[in-house]
């Protein structure tokens, strides 16, 4: 499948057209951003790890009936995915209170929630991805009630599966962000899971030590990000190739050079 023109470039990925109008190529960048792009860095090898981890999770979700945009991984940095119309909502799923919710509500950090909490944020960097109510979604036609009900059922299924998957490798799934899109095929439109699921979009803590194994290491200057992401990949059993990408061996990513923009 031939890669065509660049259709879109975001903070962490680039989307390219292909010869199939229903499929695109997603390229994982090494850019790291936080606080709505106020903090930036290039962390060589991050895109490689996120590509592999996201492929692993989405493939497993497909096996339990969660339809998503992944078709297949092409190489260490690229995937073929279905072209979707992204619903402009970020769905934040919380199992443990940490991050922004503790500041907003004065909740003690690390509080285990009685049941998963789903929050909605408008997907708009210029506005700071503001927290919204479900009623806002319907008032401004960002999605229909039928779509949101379907999404919520999928979210709870995804959360149950991922909690178990990570618990099995000694990791606590604290919270994570999901995005969904409308995939049009044969004249029909269907809401499916889109975007990536990786340590960039999840908070992952070691089950015993509570060591952060996610992008909070970058946000809070807790130390190198690559060793943490590599640890997640190793525990999931997916980091076994001896491949060289951008002169960095995947098994030696802990020695990468970080460049500040």
Which helices and strands appear, and what pairs or packs with what?
Layout: E1 3-9, E2 13-18, E3 23-28, E4 31-34, E5 39-43, H1 46-63, E6 70-73, E7 78-82, E8 85-86, E9 89-97, H2 100-105, E10 111-122, E11 131-132, H3 134-139, H4 145-167, E12 171-185, E13 188-194, E14 202-206, H5 216-219, H6 225-235, E15 244-245, E16 248-249, E17 258-260
Antiparallel strand pairs: 1-2, 2-3, 3-7, 4-5, 5-17, 6-7, 8-12, 9-10, 9-12, 10-11, 12-13, 12-14, 15-16
Helix pairs in contact: 1-6
What's the short version?
This protein has 261 residues and is an alpha+beta fold. The chain has 6 helices and 17 strands.
Write out key terms for the chains shown.
single chain; 261 residues; alpha+beta; Phosphorylase Kinase, domain 1; D-amino Acid Aminotransferase, Chain A, domain 1; 2 domains; seven-stranded antiparallel beta sheet; five-stranded antiparallel beta sheet; 6 helices; 26% helix; 37% strand; disordered C terminus
Helix-strand topology string:
EEEEEHEEEEHEEHHEEEHHEEE
CATH architect. name of the largest domain: 2-Layer Sandwich
Average pLDDT value?
91
Major sheet details = 7 strands, antiparallel
What would you call the quaternary organization?
single chain
Highest CATH level, the class of the largest domain: Alpha Beta
User: What share of residues is helical?
Assistant: 25-40%
Number of domains in the coordinates? Answer: 2
State the end-to-end distance: 34 Å
Give a count of the beta strands, DSSP E runs of length 2 or more. 17
Radius of gyration: 18 Å
Task: Provide the low-confidence segments as ranges.
Answer: 241-261
Structural class: alpha+beta
CATH topology of the largest domain: D-amino Acid Aminotransferase, Chain A, domain 1
At the fourth level of CATH, the homologous superfamily of the largest domain is ATP-grasp fold, B domain
């Amino acid at each position: 499948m031939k890669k065509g023109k660049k259709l879109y470039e975001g903070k962490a990925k680039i989307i390219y057209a292909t010869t199939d109008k229903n499929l695109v190529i997603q390229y994982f960048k090494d850019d790291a951003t936080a606080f709505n792009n106020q903090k930036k860095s290039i962390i060589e090898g991050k895109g490689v790890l996120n590509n592999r981890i996201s492929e692993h999770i989405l493939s497993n979700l497909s096996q339990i009936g969660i339809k998503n945009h992944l078709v297949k991984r092409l190489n260490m940095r690229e995937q073929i995915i279905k072209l979707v119309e992204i619903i402009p909502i970020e769905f934040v799923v919380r199992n443990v209170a940490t991050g922004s919710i503790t500041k907003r509500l004065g909740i003690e950090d690390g509080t285990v929630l009685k049941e998963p909490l789903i929050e909605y944020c408008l997907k708009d960097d210029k506005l700071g991805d503001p927290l919204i109510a479900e009623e806002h979604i319907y008032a401004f036609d960002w999605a229909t009630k039928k779509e949101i009900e379907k999404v919520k059922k999928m979210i709870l299924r995804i959360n149950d599966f991922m909690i178990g998957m990570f618990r099995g490798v000694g990791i606590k799934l604290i919270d994570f962000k999901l995005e969904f899109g409308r995939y049009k095929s044969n004249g029909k439109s269907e809401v499916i899971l889109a975007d990536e699921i990786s340590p960039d979009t999840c908070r992952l803590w070691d089950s015993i030590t509570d060591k952060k194994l996610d992008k909070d290491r970058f946000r809070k200057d807790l130390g190198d990000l690559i060793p943490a992401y590599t640890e997640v990949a190793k525990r999931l059993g997916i980091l076994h190739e001896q491949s060289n990408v951008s002169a960095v061996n995947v098994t030696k990513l802990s020695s990468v050079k970080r460049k500040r923009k």
